[in-house]
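Homework help board

Subject: predicted structure for assignment chain

Our instructor gave us this sequence and asked us to write out the predicted structure in token form, then describe one feature. I got the tokens but I'm not sure how to describe them. Can anyone check?
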Amino acid sequence: MKYILIKNATVVDPNSVHHLKKTDLLIESGTITVIDTNIEAIANETELIEGENLHVSIGWMDLRVNFNDPGNEHKEDLESGAKAAMQGGFTAVACMGTTNPALHSKSQIQYVVNKSVNLPIHIYPIATVTNKAEGIDLAELYDMSLSGAIAFSDNKNPLANAELLQRAMLYASGFNKKIIQLPLDKKIANDGKMNEGIVSTMLGLKGIPAIAEELMLQRDLTLAAHHDIAIHIGGLSTAGSVALIRAAKKEGIKVTCDVHVINLLLHDTVLEEFDTNYKVLPPLRTAKDSAALIDGLIDGTIDVICSDHTPQDAENKVKEFDIAEFGMIGLETFYGVLNQALNNKLSVEQLVQKIAINPRKIFDIELPKLAINQKANITVFSPSATWNYNSDKSFSKSKNSPFNGHEFKGKVLKTVLSK
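My token output:
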């Protein structure tokens, strides 16, 4: 029998009777058996987890990861992605469907579900809205829902056709599923490479203006309001988008949204050295935009924080900035980046709401219970512990991170999931 003993940790779970209390937790063969103070270790059979400022919450969930499986497993596959997620504190992830082939049929969804059964985390597939994520014909949404798809999204290829999006929203709502839209008008973005502004002008790079995000966001909110249907908006990056979501929620529009963690911390000025690891979509914006995003988290406008883990191999990333692919890996550095970006502006309780509770609530996934006789689904972390990230030791197959050698404050110490 395997024992795990967590000593003197603050429980962060508003649904637990132990919420915000310091206690010990004993896990026996994957089940929480004792929650009490001064629990004794069972000889040498016990894995002891202790340290300064320990916290324990239900396992975190990332709503946006790209595992490239099937089709580009040399960048990442479900196995390596699951290991990276667990290292980053996640017991569940939602896997985007723009693979090769895309997750646009029930057989593709079943492939992910079946291959994930024995992996150390829960992997929930997000199917594409359209065939091949091409934005032309609706995919078999209902069949994919029955096979395990929790939502539908064409990921970084948002639906430009308003009538098609409208039809998809109406259809999916009939069986209680949501469409996820990344707000980006690609015609206005016009093959831009970074945020449009002073820095892009100085570097001579084509920019992606804030209006490319905000115009599409306004359109999607208008559709949701007109039909009184819920929609989830992924990857907010501008102050204007935060204001639009805030106003929409006040009007009663059924909208939830998320932000990518990197957009909270970094700004377009880091691109002055043309490091392609900073080339992401949506692009890094300005300090003003990051401040507005953080304000949106504080006041509840933004519901969820994601990693947008996007592995890219050297062949696609180590090249001229203009032709390098978008994206960076982010699962293992997620909490360190988030802790640095927020700098105590959110309480630990608010943080757990954004990265563990809301992701499940929005997509009707059962919340784990942090209680005696429940299977363990927990993340143990310390907001004050420091550590150094070494991309060579990453569990991800790809190394496209700008944080190699960076010292972070805020560390995940253990992730435990018993399926």
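Reply (TA_rk): Your tokens look well-formed. For the description, you could write something like this. Residues 59-362 form a domain with the TIM Barrel fold (CATH 3.20.20.140). That's the kind of observation they're looking for.
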